[in-house]
Amino acid sequence: MYDNWEELEHSIIDCKKCKLCKNRTNIVFGTGNKNADIMFIGEGPGADEDKQGEPFVGKAGKLMNEAFKGIGINREDVYIANIVKCRPPSNRVPEEDEATACLNYLRNQVILVKPKIIVLLGSTALKNILGKEYGITNTRGRWIERKGIMYMPTWHPAALLRDENKKIEFWKDLKQVELKINK
Ligand code: URA
Ligand code: SF4
Fold first, then answer.
1. What pLDDT shows up at residue 4?
2. CB-based contacts of 60: which residues, under 8 Å, 6+ apart?
3. What is the DSSP string of 36-79?
4. CB under 6 Å to ligand 1: residues?
5. Does domain 5-181 have CATH number 3.40.470.10?
6. Ligand 2 in contact with 144 (CB < 6 A)?
7. What is this structure's pTM?
8. 145: helix, coil or strand?
9. Where are the domains of the chain?
10. Is 103 in the pocket of ligand 2 (CB under 6 A)?
11. Three-class DSSP category at 159
12. pLDDT digits (tens, 9 = 90+) for 9-59
């Protein structure tokens, strides 16, 4: 673990710790406020993210930005990262060995950001961070405390593209986050 961003960011350049290194264009490390109170964790880069090197800049990201705006969260104020930093082929779910190889970077990001709240976007984030026994359908919208950090699991923004109900639930979950941080 590194105690500063410079060394952490340097350590990931040219990373070949898992097979996702083979097809990536860019490592998508993370973006936003490095002292954020709220951190968002997604699954892994898609095609747009791989191209641009930034998380959630594609369709799902645009939906997330809309929700942020509606609720009064500024994208620049939060920190956004993913479970894996390189794009899985055809956007498949990251495999266990890939997530395991990559998770130390994310753990280090969490240590450096020191967020009060972590929003887990979808099943992959939930299971890799809080444990495989958790299911997103039953856990979303409920606060879970671990080691002084409050976790809010919710739908992955890509799931909202297909389901209006999930959109409403996603907004509700983010609203809870906004209310807690502004208390
Ligand atoms: N989906 C994710 O999980 N992360 C991104 O950065 C983009 C899409
Ligand atoms: Fe390294 Fe993570 Fe990319 Fe795998 S996904 S090559 S562990 S940065």
1. 98
2. 46, 156, 157, 158, 160, 161
3. -SEEEEES---HHHHHHTSSS-SHHHHHHHHHHHHHT--GGGSE
4. 42-46, 49, 55-56, 58, 60-61, 82, 158
5. yes
6. no
7. 0.98
8. strand
9. 5-181
10. no
11. helix
12. 999 999 999 999 999 999 999 999 999 999 999 999 999 999 999 999 999
